[in-house]
Amino acid sequence: MNITLPSPISLESIPYLWQQSDVLIFLIDLDNYAMFNTSYLNRIELESFEKLQTNYVKKRYIISRTILKHILRNITNERSIFGISTYKDRYGKVCILNHKELYICISYTENLAALAVSKVEVGIDIEILRKMVLKSNLKNMSIKPSLRDEIETGTDFLKIWTLKEAYSKFSNKNMHLIFNKELDLSSVNHSTYFLDKKYIFSIVTNSGSHIIDINRLQKIDCNWD
Questions:
Q1: The pTM is what?
Q2: 3-state secondary structure string across the chain
Q3: Less CB within 10 Å around the terminal CB: N or C of the chain?
């Protein structure tokens, strides 16, 4: 499915969108932010941050966590973003302290971050559309023999790749366990979208009918309130 995203939305519109949707997806342009400040991180977040190896990864960690907290503040009615704390479980899944009713998933590709905030379990993955060397990549990913003959372009490969990544995050299982076996999506809902003819985005949720809303988010003023 091809989607041309509308104009970026504001933080103020999030409470309304949350009432109307089961899953909200926010696309964040990381290049809009030069922020590199750890003053708002709690102890657990700071410990995770200090383990990161490169400035690029550290920057996207801070930006994504800051914006996520601003989004969640508008959903939970917290007085301050300092009242919202994230942590990772032992499998690496991002969770919100004291908000077990909220499900979070984060994905990155180049200068873009995709943040999912959901009322149901969710996994997402986003990749920029690009050419790939298929033969070498196919060796590392279990695909039915019948499908191997159908995979002729990097786009076809990326669709399977993003679905496997999204399912891995949804199921909260080690990525290698998912990539090394055929993907069975019979018990879940899944969709793949082409966004603005530039990105491929896959989402996996539990079975049932869910309303999914994908938006770009306006650049926000990340004040340390």
A1: 0.87
A2: CEECCCCCECHHHHHHHHHHCCEEEEEEEHHHCCCCCCCCCCHHHHHHHHCCCCHHHHHHHHHHHHHHHHHHHHHHCCCCHHHCCEEECCCCCEEECCCCCCEEEEEEECCEEEEEEECCCEEEEEEECCCCCHHHHHCCCCCCHHHHCCCCCHHHHHHHHHHHHHHHHHHCCCHHHHHCCCCCCCCEEEEEEEECCCEEEEEEEECCCCCEEEEEECCCCCCCC
A3: N
Q: How far apart are CA 68 and CA 58, in angstroms?
A: 15
Q: Which residues contact 179 (CB under 8 A, 6 or more apart)?
A: 140, 141, 142, 164, 168
Q: Output the pLDDT for position 147.
A: 44
Averaged pLDDT score across all residues of the chain? 86
